[in-house]
């Protein structure tokens, strides 16, 4: 049944009472089907979906993540209620200092690269977009990234390599992002990936037309002004406002925060009172991502589902919740 407004009037033989009763039975039957087999029902993309869910953009997922199959990924995203997913590829597997001699290959998570992400997005264009990525200090890194930007990549990243954030190689990538008007998503992890968060403000100032997205442990640990030991990647203490991440989001219009993974979830659950104020303060610069490896998409064991629930719980208003789960990404990625 098409629930769009009809240009023709209902038949005179169809009474208002019968119409309401019939619609009620249809909805009840659909609800029973959703309870019985939610994955298979959602995968049909029924016109009734809009009655049960609001659109959500997931800016952070991976193909073949820790061995999860393509079929499991698709079912996982549909189970979470995601309407559009951005697939972030890894770079090529290489044995170099920037991959910690192979440790960082596959984004240290068995994630696959540009070709696989592009192929899946082309097969399911209504559900998936793709990014472009490469190990930044390879001689042909820019050519590889630009190849997929020309094919329509929405973002450069996930940039997760053992390099200085202001190195010549990374600055060339920022220049490429500026030329193609796409964001750069960066994984910040102390002494492991993207060194020098404390200097990154210089890159925000040097490349004001480039939108950067901060992600992962060191990024989210530094919402706390009292986060002094950078080796602590998942702090559990209460948060004192004014940390480095808070300052960057406050002072620069071209930096965003990706709430994905255990680090993003932990930034909210460690101090929910702080999180409510933080979400309100940075409501235009926070983005939902899942970055989870499970196959169910269920809140019992899925970071993504838990992050959605936490955003809904802590957002001061419905408008702010919808910004984080949908509108901010829609605007940033020009969807």
Key descriptive features of the protein:
alpha/beta; 5-stranded parallel β-sheet
User: What is the chain-wise order of helices and strands?
Assistant: HHHEHEHEHEHEHEHHEHHEHH
- Helix count equals 14
Strands of the largest sheet, in order across it?
A: 4-5-6-7-8
The main β sheet shows up as: 5 strands, parallel
Total strand segments: 8
| Portion of residues within helices | 40-55%
* Poorly predicted residue ranges: 1-52
Per the principal axes of the C-alpha atoms, what is the gross shape? globular
Helix/strand/pairing category: alpha/beta
Based on CA atoms alone, the radius of gyration comes out at: 21 Å
Mean pLDDT: 88
Q: How far is it from the N-terminal to the C-terminal residue, by CA?
A: 28 Å
Strand content: 5-15%
Element layout with pairings:
Elements: H1 16-36, H2 38-42, H3 49-52, E1 57-61, H4 70-80, E2 84-87, H5 114-123, E3 128-130, H6 141-150, E4 156-159, H7 168-180, E5 184-187, H8 201-206, E6 212-215, H9 217-221, H10 244-251, E7 255-258, H11 261-269, H12 272-281, E8 286-287, H13 303-314, H14 318-332
Helix pairs in contact: 11-13, 13-14
